[in-house]
From TrEMBL:
Coiled coil: none annotated. Residues 181-448 form the SGNH hydrolase-type esterase domain. Signal peptide: none annotated. The keyword Transferase does not apply. It holds the Pfam family Lipase_GDSL_2. Belongs to the 'GDSL' lipolytic enzyme family. Platelet-activating factor acetylhydrolase IB beta/gamma subunits subfamily. The lineage of its organism: Eukaryota, Sar, Stramenopiles, Ochrophyta, Bacillariophyta. The chain crosses the membrane at residues 36-55. Keywords: Membrane, Transmembrane, Transmembrane helix. It comes from the Eukaryota. This is SGNH hydrolase-type esterase domain-containing protein. The keyword rRNA-binding does not apply.
Length: 469
C-alpha cells in the first residue's frame, strides 16, 4: 500500500467507526458516557477530515479541491511559470490570432487523468501550443502577453544597436567577418540562458552548465578565440527560446539584423563575384524545429524555413553594397528525441485523428525537412548570386563527397558538410543523452561537439583559408 493510499484510507476508517448507530439510551445514565465518546469521536473525525482535504491539496494538486483549478490557471498565465514548470497543455483555441488560453486543461496520459500532471514539473519546458494553422512565412511576433519573449527581443535589439555603433576593429587585411548566430533555444543556449534566464530543471543541465557553455562559446567563437581575435566585431547570439520561422522573420525585420558597414566597399569588385575579402558577416542559422514542435507539418515547416532564409538574404542584399557577399552557415534541424512532446501534440496533430493515435517521434518529420534542405538552399543561391552557403548536415561522411567536390569552385551551388556525430547523429542512445540530456537541447559537452561542426562550416566558407580545427 502506498503512502498516498494510506492517507486516503485512514479517515475512511474513522467514518466506518462512526457508522455504528448512536443508540438512544434506554438507561440514560448508563449510556451517557459511551455516547459522549461517540460525539467526541465525530468532532475529532470531522476535524481530521477537513485537515486531510486541505493539506491534501498541496500533495495532490488538481485532485484535491476544485478551487485549485482557478489558481492553476492564474499561475499558468504567469509567463515564467508557464515556461518553466507545469505540464499543462494549451488546447486548440478558436481565436484567429492564437493568443487566448482555453480554461480546459487536456490531460494526455493516464497519469494526468489521475490528476497528477497539472502541477508536476515534467520534461516539457513549456506547454504545447498548437500553431499548425498559422502561416509559417508571415512575419508575426509572439502575443503581447509573452513578456519574456518580448523582453529578450528588446535586449537583442539593443545588442544589435550597440554592435552597429561599434567601430570595426581591423587595421590590416587579416580580418575575419563578424559571426551572427540566429535561432531558437538551441542558439540562445550558447549564452547559457532560456528567455534570458537560467533554464529550469527541465533542461536537465548540470550544476554550472550555463557558465560551462559560455566558456565553450568563448573558446571557439568569443573575442579571445582564434576567430574572435581577428573578427571585425564581437559575435552576436540572437536566439530566443521557442522561436519559429514566422517570429524569426519578424525579429529580423524589427531590429535583430545588424546593418553597419564593416569594411570600405572594395573598388572594382562590384561585378557580383564572390570575394572573401569583401565579406562582412557570416550568419549562422538554425530555425524550424519549433514549427514541428508546435504541430506544424513538415511541408509548412519547409516553407517557413525557405521564407526565413530568403528574408535574411534579401535584407543582406538591401542593406549592403553589391560587392558585399552574403554568407550563411545553415544548420539542418538537429535530431530530437523528446518523444513525449510528439505524443502530446495529439489532438490536434495526430498520426490518425480517427483513432487519436499520436505520433511517437519527431524524427520522421525532422528527416523530411532535412532531406528538402539541399534543394531549398540551392534555390537561394540561384536567386541571390553573390552568396555562399554551407549546409551542416548530421549525415555521416561515408566517403561520398560528391556534392561537395563537384561544385567546390562554383558560386552557384551550396556546399554540404557532413558532420555526423558532431551534429548529434549518435547511433547510441546513451551517447545521445550524454550530449542532449533533455533530448532536445545540447549541454556543454554537446555544444563542444557542435562547435567542431560549425568551425568546419566556417572553414569551408573561407575556402579553407584559415585554420580553425
Ligand atoms: C525525463 O527524461 C529523462 C531522460 O530522458 C528520464 O529519465 C526521466 O524519467 C524523464 N522524466 C519525466 C518526468 O518524464
Ligand atoms: C547572457 O548571459 C549573461 C550571463 O547570465 C546575462 O547577463 C546576459 O543578459 C545574457 N544575454 C542575453 C541576451 O540574455
Ligand atoms: C569581378 O571583379 C573581380 C575583382 O576586380 C575580378 O577578379 C573578377 O574576375 C571579376 N569577375 C567577373 C565575372 O568579371
Ligand atoms: C485511421 O484509423 C482508422 C481506423 O483504424 C482507419 O480506418 C483509417 O484508415 C486510419 N487512417 C489513416 C490515415 O491511417
Ligand atoms: C570528404 O570530406 C571530408 C571533410 O571535408 C574529409 O575528411 C574526407 O576525407 C573526405 N572523403 C573523401 C573520400 O574524400
Ligand atoms: C559520384 O557521382 C558520380 C556522378 O554523379 C557517380 O557516378 C559516382 O558513383 C559518385 N560517387 C560516389 C562515391 O557516390
Amino acid at each position: 500500500m502506498t503512502t498516498d493510499e494510506q492517507i486516503r484510507r485512514r479517515p475512511k476508517k474513522k467514518f466506518t467507526l462512526l457508522l455504528s448507530p448512536i443508540t438512544v439510551p434506554s438507561h440514560p445514565q448508563q449510556h451517557h458516557r459511551r455516547n459522549y465518546m461517540k460525539y467526541l469521536l465525530l468532532v475529532i473525525a470531522t476535524a481530521l477530515f477537513l485537515t486531510w482535504m486541505f493539506a491534501g491539496t498541496d500533495v495532490r494538486g488538481e485532485s484535491g479541491l476544485s478551487s485549485s483549478r482557478a489558481g492553476q490557471r492564474a499561475k499558468t498565465m504567469n509567463i515564467h511559470h508557464k515556461f518553466s514548470k507545469p505540464n499543462v497543455i494549451r488546447t486548440i483555441n478558436n481565436e484567429k490570432d492564437g493568443d487566448s488560453w482555453d480554461s480546459t486543461f487536456v490531460p494526455y496520459n493516464e497519469e494526468d487523468i489521475n490528476g497528477e500532471a497539472a502541477i508536476k514539473p515534467s520534461n516539457s519546458s513549456r506547454p504545447f501550443q498548437y500553431i499548425g494553422d498559422m502561416d509559417p512565412t508571415k512575419p508575426q511576433p509572439w502575443p503581447k502577453d509573452e513578456a519574456d519573449w518580448w523582453a529578450l527581443h528588446e535586449k537583442l535589439v539593443e545588442q544589435v544597436r550597440e554592435s552597429d555603433e561599434m567601430l570595426p576593429r581591423h587595421t590590416n587585411d587579416d580580418y575575419l567577418p563578424q559571426l551572427v548566430f540566429y535561432g531558437d533555444s538551441i542558439t540562445e543556449g550558447w549564452n547559457g540562458t532560456s528567455f534570458g534566464n537560467t533554464p529550469g530543471p527541465t533542461r536537465m543541465w548540470g550544476a554550472g552548465e550555463s557558465s560551462k557553455i559560455r566558456q565553450v562559446f568563448e573558446k571557439h567563437f568569443g573575442e579571445s578565440s582564434a576567430w574572435g581575435k581577428r573578427a571585425l566585431l564581437p559575435p552576436l547570439i540572437l536566439g530566443i527560446s521557442g522561436s519559429r520561422t514566422y517570429d524569426f522573420i519578424w525579429r529580423l525585420e524589427n531590429g535583430e539584423f545588424p546593418t553597419s558597414r564593416l569594411i570600405a566597399a572594395q573598388t572594382g569588385s562590384d561585378n557580383g563575384s564572390f570575394e572573401l575579402k569583401s565579406m562582412e558577416r557570416i550568419h549562422i542559422v538554425l530555425i524550424g524545429t519549433n514549427n514541428l514542435g508546435g504541430g506544424m507539418v513538415p511541408d509548412s515547416t519547409i516553407a517557413g524555413i525557405d521564407a526565413a532564409g530568403r528574408k535574411l538574404l534579401q535584407m543582406i542584399q538591401d542593406s549592403s553594397p553589391r560587392s558585399t557577399p552574403a554568407a550563411i552557415v545553415f544548420n539542418e534541424l538537429l535530431p530530437r528525441k523528446d518523444d513525449f512532446r510528439a505524443v502530446k501534440m495529439c489532438p490536434p496533430r495526430c498520426k490518425n485523428l480517427t483513432t487519436m493515435e499520436p505520433y511517437t517521434s519527431f524524427m520522421p518529420a525532422i528527416h523530411k525537412v532535412n532531406e528538402a534542405l539541399p534543394n531549398l538552399l540551392r534555390g537561394w543561391v540561384n536567386d541571390y548570386p553573390n552568396t555562399r552557403i554551407v549546409l551542416l548536415s548530421s549525415q555521416n561522411d561515408d566517403g561520398n563527397n560528391n556534392s561537395t567536390q563537384k561544385n567546390i569552385n562554383s558560386n552557384f551551388d551550396i556546399r554540404i558538410m557532413r558532420c555526423g556525430e558532431e551534429m548529434f547523429a549518435f547511433e547510441n542512445e546513451q551517447e545521445f543523452d550524454e550530449n542532449m540530456p533533455d533530448r532536445l537541447h545540447p549541454n556543454a559537452k554537446g555544444y563542444e561537439m557542435w562547435a567542431r561542426c560549425l568551425k568546419r562550416g566556417l572553414t569551408e566558407i573561407m575556402d579553407n583559408a584559415i585554420e580553425l580545427l
